[in-house]
Design a protein that fits this description.
Blueprint: H1 6-30, E1 37-53, E2 61-78, E3 81-98, E4 101-119, E5 124-140, E6 149-169, E7 172-189, H2 197-202, E8 210-213, E9 221-231, E10 234-249, E11 252-270
Antiparallel strand pairs: 1-2, 1-11, 2-3, 3-4, 4-5, 5-6, 6-7, 7-8, 7-9, 9-10, 10-11
């Protein structure tokens, strides 16, 4: 090969590589299915707790706890109808006290939500929908004479709404989000006043322990305010949650107030099926 033709040959090879790479990227982007893109986050935080359960005590117990939250949010469809689907898992391990009367608590919940989106403009999106929530847990006071434990179980349908705002930040954007969940109707487990768990489970006296819940006897709601902040190649989520749970059934009153401050990472995941062409790009 002539010396003066060598630079031309190198330029030709570079042009071919760039063209092939561009075509591969185009094919890769075109092959992405938006219904397989999942935004997932896991957060850890500290909770400020205020618990009242008249089955155990007539006084408030205050303290702190550890909170874990795991959320997924993705676009979904039912036939030709597009919506957004959210799953949320949250749990709190708490320690509260009143003088020398210590109380330990473990509360957890699972939520499944579907939203209809309303695009206001390029930055703001509003969503409204319905939610199914399942929550439960226990309060334990080892120094009580008779009732040591109070069990909590609640299955309900809730109304939920969300506002998402994309705030420009340098070359990227910060995503601000507010969400509110309000239980509307469901089933709630609660013993009668003065009824022991031995009577319920040992003697199988279940009458009256399963109650219909509604906003009058269960005025509860959950607020979430979060910010997704890009830092380098990662996205950090900082959030504040006010989970305010209240019941008044069977002559017993309960309130479990949980104000939590959490931080965690946000990941965007693409689900690849076995026969998906994108498997060609999978290094494993």
């Amino acid at each position: 090969m002539k010396k003066n033709s060598l630079p031309k040959f190198i330029l030709l090879v570079i042009a071919i590589v760039v063209a092939v790479a561009s075509q591969a990227q185009s094919l890769h982007a075109d092959s992405i299915n938006p219904y397989r893109v999942v935004v997932r986050s896991s957060q850890h935080g500290i909770s400020l707790l205020n618990n009242l359960d008249t089955y155990l005590s007539g006084y408030n117990h205050t303290g702190t706890g550890y909170t874990f939250t795991h959320e997924t949010l993705r676009k979904a469809h039912f036939g030709s109808y597009d919506f957004k689907y959210q799953t949320l898992l949250h749990a709190t391990l708490g320690y509260t006290n009143l003088h020398d009367n210590n109380q330990y608590s473990l509360m957890a919940g699972r939520r499944w939500s579907g939203y209809h989106p309303f695009r206001v403009n390029d930055r703001l999106e509003l969503l409204a929908g319905a939610q199914v929530l399942l929550s439960g847990g226990a309060l334990y006071v080892p120094t009580n004479g008779n009732n040591l434990v109070s069990l909590k179980m609640h299955l309900a349908v809730a109304g939920t709404a969300m506002a998402i705002y994309h705030l420009p930040l340098a070359r990227n954007h910060c995503t601000l989000r507010y969400q509110i969940d309000i239980p509307l109707a469901g089933l709630l487990f609660s013993p009668e006043f003065g009824q022991s768990y031995y009577e319920i489970f040992g003697l199988e006296d279940y009458g009256g322990t399963l109650c219909f819940s509604h906003p009058v006897n269960t005025p509860s709601w959950r607020h979430t305010l979060s910010a997704d902040i890009p830092i380098g190649n990662s996205t950090i989520r900082v959030s504040y949650v006010a989970d305010l749970y209240q019941t008044k059934v069977n002559n017993l009153r309960t309130h479990l107030y949980n104000h939590s401050f959490s931080v965690g990472f946000v990941r965007t995941i693409y689900k690849v099926k076995h026969n998906d062409p994108l498997n060609a790009y999978n290094p494993f």
